[in-house]
Amino acid sequence: MTEAIVLQSTNVRKVYGTRQNMQEVLKGIDLKVREGEFVGIMGPSGAGKTTLLNVLATIDRASEGSIRIAGTEIATMRDRELSTFRREQLGFIFQDYNLLDTLTAKENILLPISLSKVSKQEAESRFKNIADILGITDLANQYPHQLSGGQKQRTAAARALINNPSMIFADEPTGALDSKSASSLLETLERVNRENEVTIMMVTHDPLASSYCSRVVFLRDGQIYSELYRGEETRQQFFQEILKVQAMLGGETVDSI
Amino acid sequence: MTLFDLVLRNMKKNVKHYYLYFFALIFSVALYFVFASLQFDTTVAERTALSGSMTSGFKAANILLIIIAGIFIIYANSIFLTRRSKEIGLYQLIGLTKNAVAKMLIIENVLLSFGALIVGILTGTVVSRLFLLLLLKVVGIQETVQLQFSMDALKSTLLVFTIIIVITSIQMIRKVYKKTLIQLFKADQATEIVKEPKGIIAAILAMSGIGLIVFGYWLSGHMLNQFLLLNMLLVLFATIFGSYLIFRVSIGWLLGRIRRMKKGHMSLKDSLSIAPLMHRMKGNAQSLTIITTLSAMAMTMIAISYSLFYSNEEVTRQLLPNDFQFSEETSAFIGSIEQLKQFEERLTAEQIDYERAAVHAYPIELSLKEAEVNEMVREDLTAHVVSTEDLRYLGYDWNDDYTALHYSMLYWAFKDTKMPVDVELSDGEKLIIHEFSGDNIFNLTSFEANLVVSPEQYERLKRYQSGEESPVRYAISIPNKQLEEAQRIFEEVVEDEVLRHSTYYEKYQSMRQSSGLMIFIAGFLGLVFLISTGSILYFKQMTEAEQEKQSYKTLRQLGFSTQELLSGIRRKQLFVFGLPLLIGLLHSWFAVQSANIIFMTDVTIPTLIAMAVYSLIYLSFAVLTMGYYKQVVKQSM
């Protein structure tokens, strides 16, 4: 692991509520993500998974601590700069797809680069390339309501990839999918990660989903509890290990598939 | 917690959504009450020469008011019900019976509506005096008049609005009983199924929408024949149905074409304007058509009455160029020489400045049979020749061969004639006419055609004189600010009732009163139209903003800033508000043009002023919705 560090968080804290009634959701997270990693974030409900993802992804602000993405300190950036940063450097995949109903799949996918200086030809070729990888070329002119859940999530993934982001954040991307679509999507993400060397961070509560990752970080009560590296293990072996840690963590029951 | 507590909680929670509706409701009630009071009150009518037209004017205004208030309230209510569908469903889901839910909604409705009714009537009572003062001002009466609280007005207001409340309650009952739970939960869901108007049929419909409107406009300029009523109905149908097609198909179709040309490469602005506009046109077509039609009606009404008001002085002067007129040959408009002497003595005694002009005229025969004028006036004509020398006091002054034919009775037929025109004199010689005018030379002698010529021409044409010279007519001109006094003196000198009231001053006053009344009614009705249409659009946009909230959240997460989103939304709003306004403006422009024959003056300026004021107030609603969108976008993440 000699690659460059894409994301580095130091002592990130997040506090909600008023002075009288404070709730510390993140209690000092130190995390490094290297280029080309596929990191899964797991943990029981209320462990702060989504909060961590939102804070790292600049959607939410940390109360304290430093976050550097691609060499830029984002904790001190102003809102406007953050927006531009998100648009140019990051990609997002959400549990409920969050596609715009009034746009076709292609329009949805091309949306993030609509404000950038990417030429039309370049945009077209990027679209073709990505749509090909994700197998949605034929769906380009369909509207979201005409697509299945899996197709929608692939469209969302394509949208996340279109701006060649430094990093992709995925929040429970398989949460609303049936098992077949879920594993198909995860396989695609794994392939994109491996072949295109896209760095991905994915929050999930599903051990099967996180078994596609190269590393899994376990959170409990706002702190990092442990980490697992997949190394040379098969996915099946890695899955068993994740289950063990999850059993120790308690809280959440394992989803049977 | 009782049902009533729940009602109160609901109302508290919804107050943000309701306040504009509540305000519009109060405004309609108050105005209805005021108009009804003025309609039933006779004190004002007695002081003006308008008793008949005033009562009927307010009556007509009230009927219009009922219609617009009815449409507005029922429409707004259905929007609110759709918004609250989920809530209605939820109450049923947690075990409230349909009966209880309906009861709850109706209590809410009754509380809100009767609240508005009471506040509206109270406001109406308070402001009716103000209205009265304003009315007296526009009709030009300086007396103070007391307005009594009118029981009749109260009764009629209560009756009308109770009926409207009953109708809205029925709407609610239907909503609760006829809709299944799943329909209720889905009613609120973001966008309708997206369906682009495609193919040849859509293209034909899109074109025919535009075609119908163009046809309507064309017909509106060619209505004056024996099928006038049929033509008017056709114009109405063509423009209204045309507008509907434009909103329902044409716009979506055009946007669809633009969009397809982009081949998926839409800018953020397009994504926030073209795309949602296209997909919402179907659902919005009806309301946008209503808004367009109402706006067009209101603007036409205001523009016409304002034009009449605006051109009062000019029009009266066209009919009655002289302040007072006397001659040996008296008529309903002309006093005797005896009266002239007395009048002049009195004027001098009371130190009122005046100017006397003696105007001579003799008749000649003109033949227009061969002239290139409207077929209807290709006949022989007796015209009385008048020299500009005599008419200097009216501002006519030329020495060359310029010739103007003044004939107010048939002016409409000459209006479009290409000048100059050759006419024939009795010996076959040609006379060139350089100008046709509708302005009278003498007071209301509209049956007399006058040929205004230079002094030299006056002498030259004498050889064609066909009858006795007219008796000399004496015109008395008085400076404007002394006109009222002069009128008083005139009435002392003259006993004849008709003659007394046929002076310029009297006619001007009565014109001013009737057109003042018109502008008063049209102005306030227009304001109700404006507030209703503006509110409907505002409510619709509020709902749309809520439905789009998730999209805004997504876009912000993807890294678009609030400002970038708002600039796209601004463009959408420009369409939503601008299109009905623009089409409404066009409609009313052509409506005013087609009503042109009732005006004797150019009404472009007053029409433009009226339209500008209307548009300005209307667009303030757009600003209001932008404020709401801003809030939604900001809070979305």
TrEMBL record, chain A:
<comment type="similarity">
    <text>Belongs to the ABC transporter superfamily.</text>
</comment>
<keyword id="KW-0813">Transport</keyword>
<dbReference type="GO" id="GO:0098796">
    <property type="term" value="C:membrane protein complex"/>
</dbReference>
<dbReference type="GO" id="GO:0022857">
    <property type="term" value="F:transmembrane transporter activity"/>
</dbReference>
<dbReference type="GO" id="GO:0016887">
    <property type="term" value="F:ATP hydrolysis activity"/>
</dbReference>
<dbReference type="InterPro" id="IPR003593">
    <property type="entry name" value="AAA+_ATPase"/>
</dbReference>
<dbReference type="InterPro" id="IPR003439">
    <property type="entry name" value="ABC_transporter-like_ATP-bd"/>
</dbReference>
<dbReference type="InterPro" id="IPR017911">
    <property type="entry name" value="MacB-like_ATP-bd"/>
</dbReference>
<dbReference type="InterPro" id="IPR027417">
    <property type="entry name" value="P-loop_NTPase"/>
</dbReference>
<dbReference type="GO" id="GO:0005524">
    <property type="term" value="F:ATP binding"/>
</dbReference>
<keyword id="KW-0067">ATP-binding</keyword>
<dbReference type="Pfam" id="PF00005">
    <property type="entry name" value="ABC_tran"/>
</dbReference>
<feature type="domain" description="ABC transporter">
    <location>
        <begin position="7"/>
        <end position="246"/>
    </location>
</feature>
<protein>
    <submittedName>
        <fullName>ABC transporter ATP-binding protein</fullName>
    </submittedName>
</protein>
<keyword id="KW-0547">Nucleotide-binding</keyword>
From TrEMBL, chain B:
<feature type="transmembrane region" description="Helical">
    <location>
        <begin position="198"/>
        <end position="220"/>
    </location>
</feature>
<keyword id="KW-0812">Transmembrane</keyword>
<feature type="transmembrane region" description="Helical">
    <location>
        <begin position="18"/>
        <end position="40"/>
    </location>
</feature>
<feature type="transmembrane region" description="Helical">
    <location>
        <begin position="604"/>
        <end position="629"/>
    </location>
</feature>
<protein>
    <submittedName>
        <fullName>ABC transporter permease</fullName>
    </submittedName>
</protein>
<keyword id="KW-0813">Transport</keyword>
<feature type="transmembrane region" description="Helical">
    <location>
        <begin position="232"/>
        <end position="256"/>
    </location>
</feature>
<dbReference type="Pfam" id="PF02687">
    <property type="entry name" value="FtsX"/>
</dbReference>
<feature type="transmembrane region" description="Helical">
    <location>
        <begin position="288"/>
        <end position="309"/>
    </location>
</feature>
<comment type="similarity">
    <text>Belongs to the ABC-4 integral membrane protein family.</text>
</comment>
<dbReference type="InterPro" id="IPR003838">
    <property type="entry name" value="ABC3_permease_C"/>
</dbReference>
<feature type="transmembrane region" description="Helical">
    <location>
        <begin position="517"/>
        <end position="539"/>
    </location>
</feature>
<feature type="transmembrane region" description="Helical">
    <location>
        <begin position="574"/>
        <end position="592"/>
    </location>
</feature>
<dbReference type="InterPro" id="IPR027022">
    <property type="entry name" value="ABC_permease_BceB-typ"/>
</dbReference>
<keyword id="KW-1003">Cell membrane</keyword>
<dbReference type="GO" id="GO:0055085">
    <property type="term" value="P:transmembrane transport"/>
</dbReference>
<dbReference type="GO" id="GO:0005886">
    <property type="term" value="C:plasma membrane"/>
</dbReference>
<feature type="transmembrane region" description="Helical">
    <location>
        <begin position="156"/>
        <end position="177"/>
    </location>
</feature>
<feature type="transmembrane region" description="Helical">
    <location>
        <begin position="110"/>
        <end position="136"/>
    </location>
</feature>
<feature type="domain" description="ABC3 transporter permease C-terminal">
    <location>
        <begin position="62"/>
        <end position="179"/>
    </location>
</feature>
<keyword id="KW-0472">Membrane</keyword>
<keyword id="KW-1133">Transmembrane helix</keyword>
